[in-house]
Write a structure and sequence with these properties.
Blueprint: H1 7-21, H2 25-54, H3 65-73, H4 76-117, H5 124-127, H6 135-138
């Protein structure tokens, strides 16, 4: 929960909590923990009721619609039949892109060799970009 906070930030949060709640801080913490326990108990009761109604074992992660359909409505064969055409298209696209990637590497290496053998351009007029036109130039 606090993995992205360092010790200074956690200490600052505790100090701010002490300043805001003062002597009531232990009561606020216990009320917060009681609320979290009640929420967890309600969630586990809801999943238990849903499991009993559907006749299958359901976890909280299974309540996502895609995961629910994948786990409880589709068989292994149906999943494979749905996945097969997409897997072939993915493999074809992957092989095409790896070929394009290799071609681009070859072109980049050839361009690096050509630029290394070229003489540097000393003409300053050719190396400076043209002035940028503003919106007022067109109106």
């Amino acid at each position: 929960m606090f993995e992205n906070l360092n010790w200074w930030e956690i200490g600052l949060l505790i100090l701010v909590a002490l300043l805001i709640f003062g002597d009531k801080l232990p009561n606020v913490i216990s009320d917060g923990l009681r609320m979290v326990r009640n929420l967890r108990r309600m969630a586990s009761n809801a999943t238990g009721d849903l499991s009993r109604e559907l006749g299958t074992d359901i976890q909280l992660e299974d309540l996502h619609p895609k995961a629910f359909i994948r786990k409880h409505l589709l068989s292994e064969e149906e999943q494979e039949n749905l996945r097969k055409p997409l897997q072939k298209m993915f493999e074809d696209a992957k092989s095409d892109l790896s070929g394009v990637h290799q071609d681009l590497k070859d072109v980049a290496q050839a361009a690096d060799l050509k630029s290394a053998t070229r003489k540097p351009v000393t003409d300053t007029a050719a190396s400076t970009p043209p002035p940028r036109r503003s919106f007022d130039d067109f109106t």
